[in-house]
Amino acid sequence: MVGRVTAGIIAVGTELAIGQVLDTNSRYIAQRLSAVGCDVREVLVIPDDRVAMLRAFADFSSKYRITTITGGLGPTADDFTKEILLQLFGGKLVEDPATLQLVTERLAKRGLALTPRNAEQAMVPSSCEVLPNKLGTAPGMLFCQGANWVFSLPGVPFETEALVDEQVIPRVSRLSTGKPLQRVLKIYGIAESYLADRIASWEQRLAEHFSLAYLPGPEGIRLRIDSKEPGTPALQEELTSYVEELKDLIPNEFYGEGDETLPSVVGSLLKRKSATIATAESCTAGRLAEAITSVPGASDYYLGGLVTYGDRIKREQLGVKPDLLARFGAVSEEVAGAMAQGVMERLKAEYGIATTGLLGPGGDGSKTPVGTFYWAVASRVGVTTGRALLSSTRAVNAVRATYDALNGLRRVLIGCL
Amino acid sequence: MVGRVTAGIIAVGTELAIGQVLDTNSRYIAQRLSAVGCDVREVLVIPDDRVAMLRAFADFSSKYRITTITGGLGPTADDFTKEILLQLFGGKLVEDPATLQLVTERLAKRGLALTPRNAEQAMVPSSCEVLPNKLGTAPGMLFCQGANWVFSLPGVPFETEALVDEQVIPRVSRLSTGKPLQRVLKIYGIAESYLADRIASWEQRLAEHFSLAYLPGPEGIRLRIDSKEPGTPALQEELTSYVEELKDLIPNEFYGEGDETLPSVVGSLLKRKSATIATAESCTAGRLAEAITSVPGASDYYLGGLVTYGDRIKREQLGVKPDLLARFGAVSEEVAGAMAQGVMERLKAEYGIATTGLLGPGGDGSKTPVGTFYWAVASRVGVTTGRALLSSTRAVNAVRATYDALNGLRRVLIGCL
């Protein structure tokens, strides 16, 4: 795409470089910049090292129209982003009265007095424009290098995100030549190579000015179709017809687009039916409840649920019959079904959903193979169950089990199971 | 530190560069390489772009002793890491019989036949050493550039992690000049700038050959102390005495070291008491159960719990009295306490822990401010409660609420509340 605004993202922090902390800020910034049409060329993580910082700041600010730098602005001695920016862009440290006032007010609200350490946060290079930080003590800063912009932002994720949304994106949007054309289709229940075979002839027909990318993850596969040219209405229409053809090839596996998630899709289906749901979790131990309630407004359809880790709790709290547990074991289709029905009845919900499985690494002493997993969905009509053999780590298996169950619920709700 | 093995990490993928997918592989690799003494200098994310890939691969492999590249090895047309590696290191594509056999066996286990697309995964540059991938179809590869090593690894996280552990780390360990000396202290319940003030005189006394870093996050603050010199027994002893002094300055806030987490610390305390616990969650909706069960062996002390989203479920499933709900509202100390007691009694546990709060962004129509949160811990002796005013996004508030409750439980268990 001609004339796209180029962007580079730098995250500073030894804790990030050595992997002690996961850098989520860069992803957030990349997402936001891409959404307004920027071409993100590089994301770089470097340690708190003055030489590496100066080199990277100088390199990026000369190459890219937009550079963002997160981190290194804290009140402690291991933070020196401000010092390097001063070195690169000149000026001297001056007190920013607005920042000082913001910091004082924030502390006062929590009943705390301003300390000298906090007051230092209001000292900024005279060469920058201050970007007020409503959620923390370190302000954002904007520097200009010729036509190029360098945004320095604090590294605390919710502060970074607020400053990106309120200060960076509005400014960058004004430079942008238009949103890139893109569709992202969400797919669950088919492996990447089989999906590629299923849609191979469609992919071959796809016009050259579109590109296709496969993004597999525990929440299924995302298929991203990008246009390489600026989005015109004709191109938009062409893309729409490709997407409709694609959906017809994967009618049961396609579940949503863009920001839609399995929990949000399931939530919309429940809302449309004015139905409520309750959860009974063994191996997923709260993850299903968490996923369902991650959707704003989930209280409209989610009543609550039980985490029934041991057999006794399954019997006493969900009414699972002792002989079912004895005959089939806790990890069985029968017990999953009884759990789903039990929670539906006890919480008086229209639907009950349950999980039971052996996520590993160890087994339960029975013959059930590690990785065995069952989900069940109960309604007034009956019980639907599904099975999977999970083969990854405990943590990944837990996520897959959660999504498998949600996808089962989705298919029950749309009537394709 | 003189003579440390330098390392650079590259992650390839447009989905990573535009922020559609969070890059967790680089963090994993950085962690593992650092743990065996490597000096991770750069972590770089670039899109699936042949020019950017070739430039970055050439640059890193000439600069760093160890380079890792993840991604771009999938069976679909948008993956071309192998092509670029062939261009850079020479050779031609040849079939690797061992990989072909592994892939065929993997598919057979799932009842699937080998497709041509899968078979292509066994074609590797003749210039590399193949690193077998037991969990997926794309093998890892090792290339040499003079004395420098370049590892190419698939991008699916659990495959990457297994290859790093089984193939990369054993080789790199042999190069390493010894583990760096490091201690990481975990602290909960004090803000970064107040912690810095509290330990200021200790920090000033800290010898120059140690460096201190503050890593704040929702799970509290990690204080990392690194030695800049190779770890000798004398240095080790010196560090230990610094750490003991530091702990004495924050007796209630210090909760663990290294890989210890609030859930693992609480788990150890419960195990030591041979006590069981049950959860009753309103606003955290499963996160508390999830956190507790993230620790292997949690079934020794965790019985299960309830997610009671609505008032009716709180009354019916936990026995919270209607007049408590009417007088104080669901978000109150009184209701939190009744929930903790209710779940302790109903599940016959030694301890009950409960959460209730308004995580935002919207309120509940009452006068309760958004962000109000209560936790409660019940035991046969009585009920302990705590309160917080959370001021971040819904998702961050949920994590903080979960950790606040766990920290409350920890303090109850160690008898400092």
TrEMBL record, chains A, B:
Pfam families reported in the protein's UniProt record: CinA (PF02464), CinA_KH (PF18146), MoCF_biosynth (PF00994)
SMART domains in the record: MoCF_biosynth
SUPFAM superfamilies attached to this UniProt entry: CinA-like (SSF142433), Molybdenum cofactor biosynthesis proteins (SSF53218)
Sequence ranges assigned to domain MoaB/Mog in this UniProt record: 8-175
Stored InterPro entries: CinA (IPR050101), CinA-like_C (IPR036653), CinA_C (IPR008136), CinA_KH (IPR041424), Competence-induced_CinA (IPR008135), MoaB/Mog-like_dom_sf (IPR036425), MoaB/Mog_dom (IPR001453)
Family note: Belongs to the CinA family.
Name the UniProt record assigns to this protein: CinA-like protein
